[in-house]
Amino acid sequence: MNAPLYQRIQALEVAVLKDNKHIDTISVAPRKTINTREEVEQLFSKALSAGEEGIVVKRKDVTYQPGTRMTKNGWFKMKAYLGDNELDVAVVAIDKGKDNQVTYQLAVRDGDKYQTITHCSSGLGRVDRDYIYDLATRSEGPLLQKAPPELRGWKIHDPKGGYIRREHWIVVEMTAAGVRDGQFIDPVMKRIRYDKDVDEVDTLKTFESYEEVCSYANYSYGCGRSENMFQLLHNSKLSDKSPSKAKPRKVTKRMIVESSEFS
Questions:
Q1: Compositional bias of type Basic residues: which residue ranges (predicted)?
Q2: Out of 54, 110, 184, 185, which could bridge 178 as a Cys pair, Cβ 3.0 to 4.6 Å?
Q3: What are phi and psi for residue 42, nearest 5 degrees?
């Protein structure tokens, strides 16, 4: 796994998957070599037009680093986050989610009640997350084990998690890559809305109409060329110029073994 991507693919194709009789279950994903950001944008727009969620971009000379799929490493996903279709929601509970990440229950208004609509573990910096936790736990004691009467919340799974007291709910702005079967795809908290009170969060009706907005936006050209996408490309190591060709290295037995373990 210490070999760069292009050598790992070569090892798979010439050794591990040579004369592969199980192509329906084991295969190397289709790929295209590009040189500039403009080509990435074109592939991204093409994927959205085909109804795909996005694309994965990898530098051909990058080595595999478990748990570090980040823009600065030249290995990242590009999805069409709906930058013009944010929702203002209330942070109402803290729990543990996938891979033991801290996750938050986000809620919208439904009459005089609030309804949890999603879990979210992405977005916001450490300072903002610490602020939410401190506000929720240090003012009047630990998190609640039962939802406050104003909230129709989801079940808490982590013994150390719990519901936040109504007076300590805060408003955050969130967006997502879309909605499928009533569930957000990759929701992200963008910022804390210090200028808004909890009574001003979006309504359940707005959330229910969000899926229609997402379906339209995912097929629009404007969504494919969002500011988020440009920022992602700007932060990546992709260049506007063609890179110099990497000197090829001979595929060794060790590489083949490592590629077998990787696959």
A1: 244-253
A2: 185
A3: -65, -45
Determine the Cα–Cα distance for residues 147 and 162; give it in Å rounded to an integer: 8
CA 214 to chain centre: 16
**86-234 topology per CATH:** OB fold (Dihydrolipoamide Acetyltransferase, E2P) (2.40.50)
Cβ atoms 177, 190 nearer than 8 A? no
**In terms of C-beta density within 10 A (0-12 exposed, 13-18 middle, 19 or more buried), how is residue 21 classed?**
exposed
The residue ranges of every structural domain in the chain are 5-79, 86-234
Instruction: Evaluate if residue 115 carries a pLDDT over 90.
Output: yes
Residue given tokens 């992602």 in the structure block: 232
Q: What is the Cα 176 distance to its own chain's centre?
A: 8
pLDDT digits (tens, 9 = 90+) for 58-114: 888 877 665 555 555 677 777 665 555 789 999 999 998 777 789 999 999 999 999
